[in-house]
Design a protein that fits this description.
This protein has 124 residues and is an all-alpha fold. The protein is built from five helices and no strands.
């Protein structure tokens, strides 16, 4: 424990981040210093045919590709044809029209108690 009154609170609290900050910084620096060698080795392994190394590098460079729900060999669903697309579009339009009809249909009791005032009619 330090005797400095400014650090007394932190010494009593003793969180791990403060306690091990120097050791963590040293460990991180070792990793940072080794990165060029690690990347060089990883690239050479990928060039020599190591699929895992190549996949790791590509995933890190371009971001991980989304996983498929089923492997292509297991996926036996029929492809989405032009007819399926037209059918889906028809139902989408039908649903849209029904939605608009429902929105424009007067709701019972909606205008109860509202008095519409009109101005004088101008005739020519």
């Amino acid at each position: 424990m330090s005797t400095d009154p400014r650090t007394k609170y932190f010494d009593e609290l003793d969180p791990k981040a403060i306690r091990y900050a120097e050791k963590l910084n040293a460990a991180e620096q070792i990793i940072v210093d080794a990165m060029p060698e690690i990347l060089t080795k990883l690239v050479s392994m990928a060039k020599d045919g190591d699929i895992a190394a190549a996949r790791y590098l590509v995933d890190r460079m371009y971001g991980r590709a989304p996983r498929l729900a089923l492997a292509p060999a297991v996926d036996n669903t029929a492809p989405f044809t032009n007819r399926d697309w037209a059918k889906a579009r028809y139902y989408q339009e039908k649903d849209r029209e029904q939605f608009l009809r429902d929105c424009l249909r007067p709701q019972p009791g909606l205008l109860d108690g509202i008095v519409l005032k009109t101005g004088p009619t101008i005739r020519r």
